[in-house]
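request received
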Amino acid sequence: MTFRFSLKAQQGAARAGVFETPHGPIQTPIFAPVGTQATVKAVEPRELSELGASLVLANTYHLHLRPGDELIAELGGLHRFMGWDGPMLTDSGGFQVFSLGDLRSIDADGVTFRSHLDGSVHRFTPEVSIRIQHNLGADVIMAFDECPIPDNRESVLAALDRTHRWLGRCADEHARSGDANRQALFGIVQGGIYEDLRAESVRQVCGLDLPGYAVGGLAVGETKADMYATLEITTSLMPADKPRYLMGVGSPEDLVHGVARGVDIFDSVLPTRVARNGAALTRLGRINMRNQKYASDPEPIEPGCTCYACTHFSRAYIRHLVKASEILGHQLLSIHNLHLLLTLVREMRAAIMNGTFADYATAFLANYEPVGAQKGLSLPAR
Amino acid sequence: MTFRFSLKAQQGAARAGVFETPHGPIQTPIFAPVGTQATVKAVEPRELSELGASLVLANTYHLHLRPGDELIAELGGLHRFMGWDGPMLTDSGGFQVFSLGDLRSIDADGVTFRSHLDGSVHRFTPEVSIRIQHNLGADVIMAFDECPIPDNRESVLAALDRTHRWLGRCADEHARSGDANRQALFGIVQGGIYEDLRAESVRQVCGLDLPGYAVGGLAVGETKADMYATLEITTSLMPADKPRYLMGVGSPEDLVHGVARGVDIFDSVLPTRVARNGAALTRLGRINMRNQKYASDPEPIEPGCTCYACTHFSRAYIRHLVKASEILGHQLLSIHNLHLLLTLVREMRAAIMNGTFADYATAFLANYEPVGAQKGLSLPAR
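response:
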């Protein structure tokens, strides 16, 4: 079997595993950098390798519109197109088209929407999304689902029903026109912040024998407390022998809380997005490199960090680059931020393997100051 | 002597040499990438090393205004600040302040100007420029000169007189407060397109015993024919035992014509500026990567090129990045464009060393299609 998942160690709900893909194994837990338009913004593929990235994401919605999934297929697929030879994952495009607001209309069969680029009309159905993802050729492809507002029970319920029916259609289309040895279809559990709906969604989604399952619809507006509680109950119901992917989550504290609740895979644009805004992620929290206090600071972004940015440049220089709108600032902050998240998941994996994860997680969160006032949320009982 | 220049071979006017600096030797002829704000735009210092760059430029005007030359001095100088351990050169700031138009006023003693960043008032004199360049700490520093409109004899004459008087003041200030073993002051020959004024400027500028001399005031609006003719007469009058730097010139054809006329050092923002606009320099000419014809082209930017961009990515991918305004497009095109110019000067050096430069230059120019209609300008007689 091409897509084998093996658990190597567990501590509480936290898991260390290996997920085999046609482009190599993914050591879990893992954080996946996002290359929306077939490039992780301002980072070269050789730099992703150097950072120890394994899984890289790309977005179906964006690539379908530009340059086109058929063009990418003609050129040998996404891996060759963007020069990334490691494992890849594409989303279904659902999240993006539902986010288009007035530019889209949903019906029982799919979603009709206007391109944010040129206003042209397009239609995604479960079958269309799967066929586009076949053209892109990522190792992991995602079911076409609907991500509702998490704390509106009625909208969650309506979306859930659609999500489950659409999952069946995605699986059928993948069986019909796909290659299960080349691409693994993951189902997505929805249900907002409602325990009963999450349980029902797990029953329906994980009732289908798929190579992996995602938790969708979190980190989309609910409180962190709701997010962590929902995640905890959801993963506790999911099968232990399949990888679990928490979609769109990537702050340092969320990675720790997620792993503590049994998540294996994360992705987020956060590290590269905050880099573009001149911010660095550190083990103490997020820092704004525009701050005047760094103007003559000879220290690296994060003392002790072994990334290229921290081993070669001062905060004063990074601040200068950011203030002067120099691209190198974006490049170096992206490298540093990705390095932190990839180091964090490696450290968590090692801690799970040697039985020290609970201590590791507690210590990390004690030092880390999250954005906003969310500090002090508990880890699950050991 | 720290700054020793040795000629290794000559063919016609073309020279291969070595210029020793405190940060290592520069094999000439050389092209110097420009890091205006202490960064070569979108290129990491480790990538400059990989490309074989040796001399890197930075701009006194920009760094004086932001982050400030005193701050850079406090942080250990420009080399440490920007993470470039090889030879560096700073301009005098003269060209930039004279380019400010209505924002500056010139008098016999210097130039008063307003910052393009915040409108604050500043004043450069020869002494100020030299002291700023001492703070920055580049290996080669430039005299504060005036670059006039090249084909207005009256303005050229007035500027020439100032340039020569200011050179004396720069040399005095460098002798007074500088360290000739740490920083070499180059004088700048001006004179527009007028043979007699160039000859007079060479007499005055090269009459001072300096470690090197630049040719300024070319590639600023005159025709290519005038530029090459002026360059040829100017270098023929300059001392053979000192490096000759043609300022602000960097198109492939100009490098070949320049070396054929005895130039040792070039600099230009051209390779990174055209990269930002989505253009690639190739041995056949400049190409616009936005062109529809590259949409599904699996070939690299330039077949046979050994740069990171060409060995890993297709024209189709580069076009996608440029069309999607992705920073990686700027990064990869900058790498490729710098690679071409640095390879070109290395090839010319090798050809001079083995006596095949005339053939090399003729063959290169026969294949190369310059922008505009300037093809076919003659090389100097062998």
